[in-house]
Amino acid sequence: MIYKNSPITKTKFRNRTIYIKRDDLLDEKFSGNKARKFYYFLENDFPNIKKIISYGSAQANSLYSLSVLAKLKDLELDFYVNHISSFLKQNPKGNYKASLENGANIIEKPDYDLQEYIEKFLLDDKTLFIEEGGRVKEAEFGIKILADEIKLWAKENDIKNLKIMLPSGTGTTALFLQKNLPFEVLTVSCVGGSEYLKKQFFHLSKNDCSHPKILEMQKKYHFGKLYKEFYEVWNEIKTETNIEFDLLYDPLGFFALANSSYFEEENILYIHQGGLLGNETMIERYKRKYF
């Protein structure tokens, strides 16, 4: 099982040279962004813990990654969601299906603030609570390893003025990368807009000197909603680079990068987000809506 030291691929996108940090090539069951965030919990033992508790959406990448973590650690996983569609219940696919197969308990709680509910009623000394999307201080452990890999690669290849690009949900990976790198980290908010993302940064670090640069979008995009231009850019990237990317975060990541002045920079390293298991249901949704 490979959980670190992913390769870096040199490729071209829209006639610009770009490097891709291939975190999709970490272990297929524990890859990408979440593998880095949860690496601390994989590497350390928690002898008194019997259960992991978290929350998010029924198709979240974090759900699947936590289900793998729980299985590897022989722990229960209770994952709380506000809603599971009747179609998904009757036709389990993607992260939802794989997580159930790993033994996850996916618990529906409509009309609840899930974090508040968990913190008020469910926590004890035998439970490990991991906030939505891995927004926890322990995430820095694995992300620092990612930063060290990038620094070593840049040094070995004599690459200066490197720009790091990745999309953000909670912003945890981008924040801890910027904290641990001498290079500028760029990101775009996939959830809730730039003001939401700034609040997430301050939740983890009051020092705004370690906050990444947020690329602003002229159009507001709603997380999880289908946009034809996202599918088109995803397909364009796949065709040009021969690399499949995540359909939820990466299209906006590339869209933001390509429409910014940073796209003219000589050395750009894009962090692949992994999460390819979720593409199964995303592709079906796009085909039903647009094709």
Structure write-up:
The protein has 291 residues and is an alpha/beta fold. It has 2 domains: 8-29 and 138-290, Rossmann fold (3-Layer(aba) Sandwich), CATH 3.40.50.1100; 39-129, Rossmann fold (3-Layer(aba) Sandwich), CATH 3.40.50. 41% of the residues lie in helices and 17% in strands. The protein has helices at 32-37, 39-43, 61-73, 86-90, 94-101, 114-121, 139-156, 172-180, 193-204, 228-241, 250-258, 279-290, and strands at residues 8-13, 16-21, 51-56, 76-81, 105-108, 127-129, 163-168, 184-189, 213-214, 268-271. The strands form 2 sheets. It has a 6-stranded mixed β-sheet with strand order 1-2-10-7-8-9, sandwiched between helices. Helix 8 (172-180) links the parallel strand 7 (163-168) and strand 8. Helix 3 runs parallel beside helix 5 and helix 7 (139-156) crosses helix 8. The longest helix has 18 residues, at 139-156.
